[in-house]
Every structure is written in structure tokens, then in C-alpha cells.
Amino acid sequence: MAYSLAIHGGAGTMSRAQLTPEKELLYHKALENALKVGEDYLINGGSALDAVEFTVRYLENVDLFNAGKGSVFGNDGKHEMEASIMCGRTLNAGAVAGIKNVKNPIQLARTIMVESEYVYLHGIGAENFAKNYHIPFEDDFYFFTQERFNQLNAIRDSDKVILDHTDVDYKFGTVGAVALDKLGNLASATSTGGLTNKKYGRLGDSSIIGAGTYANNATCAISCTGYGEYFIRSVVAHDISCLMEYKNMSLQEASEVVVKDKLVKMGGEGGIIGVDKNGNISLTFNTEGMYRGYTSEKNPKLVTKIF
Length: 307
Prior knowledge:
- By secondary structure, the protein is α+β, with helices and mostly antiparallel strands.
- It has one domain: (Glycosyl)asparaginase (Glutamine Phosphoribosylpyrophosphate, subunit 1, domain 1), CATH 3.60.20.
- Helices cover about 35% and strands about 25% of the residues.
- The strands form 2 sheets. Strands 1, 2, 3, 4, 5, 6, 7, 12 and 13 form a 9-stranded mixed beta sheet that branches. Strands 8-9-10-11 form a 4-stranded antiparallel beta sheet.
């Protein structure tokens, strides 16, 4: 079986004018480096689970993306993160939400899947679980970026939330990876810092299995990025798998039905990355752009795109 890998770093109505050539180069380089991380596992016969976890870990460590180190601020001035991961072979999954100061939320999600009988942990309990398994924490300063702090201050006294960057640049800040390994196993992983100025413990789709993340060896692996409320209501990741399983659609056909028809009719914006059991890749979105990249054994070039 030939391996395949796809990644995303968020989708949205991104302003070309605000993306300077220097910053665009930084994004492309970060996406390329992330692809190299995952590809190294897959080339050497590693598992799809390892490939997606460590690819997402890399993206969480880059402050360009709204996940891990680059997470946006909530209304309380803190960073609350969420993540999930799923194995297509066993249908096992791990998810975490409402956590603070955990360096790599996707590492915690994987540990929950492997080391516990649970799927989904939240808040202080999840943080205690992380400490029990010696998962690294960082102080608030590690997660601080001036640009993110300025975004919060601009709307902190209102009931408004913004998805990422600025009011002009509506980018849905999430990172994710999907992979098929040489043994024919699929996996998916997603991580995010949520919404700027979010309140009341709001959670998005990134940590919800079936909505933002799904993997099944019988069909595909999917990771989503978009306005989480719509992706939750549409159960986007699982819906794509279902259309493939029960309607015999291809990955691309199913992705377009869900992302470009069903979501659009609801008013939902965003996109997905997916890989099917045969290694075919889909990068489908209904916004102006999506930070994305892919590589495969059949086409080993590292391809990264924004618009």
C-alpha cells in the first residue's frame, strides 16, 4: 500500500493584501516542514497514527497557527485548547477540550486514547490526567503573542467573537492531519485554540469525534476546519464517511456534497482535508482559501497552498 498525507492550518476569507510575501513564505515553510515530519514516519513504515500526531504537534509548536503555542485568547485572557485523534483500524479515539497550559493538546488526546477507557476529557480533570502521564505543560508566557493579544483587546468589552486574525481576515484557525500508512491504516488528528473572546466554556468541533475528526479504514480519514457550530450540527467528518459507505460516493464527491452544498445551505464556512482507503486525497473548502498541503508515495512532492 502506498502512503498518503494531507494537512491543514485553517480556512477562511483571507485577505491577500494582509498576507505579505514574507509572511506567506513563513506559512508555506511551516506547512512544508509539517509535511516532512509526517512523511518521515510514513516513508519508514511508521503508523498513520504516529504520522498525524507528530505532524499536528509540529503545527501546535508554530505560533503562526491557532493551536498550541499560537492559540488565541479567550475573554478571560487565557488560552483554552482542544484536540482529537482517531484510529481508522480500531475506531478508537481520544479527545480533550477546555484545557490550559498543555504544550501539545494532541499528545494528550493520543494518551487518553491509548492509556484510558475514556474518549473525551475536559478541563481540570483532563489537565490532572496529563500531569499523571507527565505530558509537558508551559506557562502563560509561552502561549503569548502580541498580535493575538491585540485581537482580544479590540473586542474584549463586547459580545463579539472573531475566528482568527482580524475582522477583515476571517480565518478559521485550526490545524489537522490525515494519513494512510503502508499497512493500509487510516488516522486523523485535529487541534485548535478556538475563538478569540470566547466565553462560557464554548467548545468547537475540533475535539468532537464525527464532527471535526473521523477515521475509518473502510472509507476515509477526515479533519475539518471552519465555523465549529455548523460542523457540529452537520457532523461533517462522519457524514462524508457515511456518503462513501452507504451511497458509494468517492471521497471527492462526498466532500463536495457536504462542504459545498450541505454546509453552504446552512450558512457554514470552512473546509476539510481527507484521504481515502486507496490513498486519494481531498482538499475541499467553500471559503476564499485554506492553508493546506499534501504528499504521497505516488507523488512525493511536498505541495503547499493557501488560496
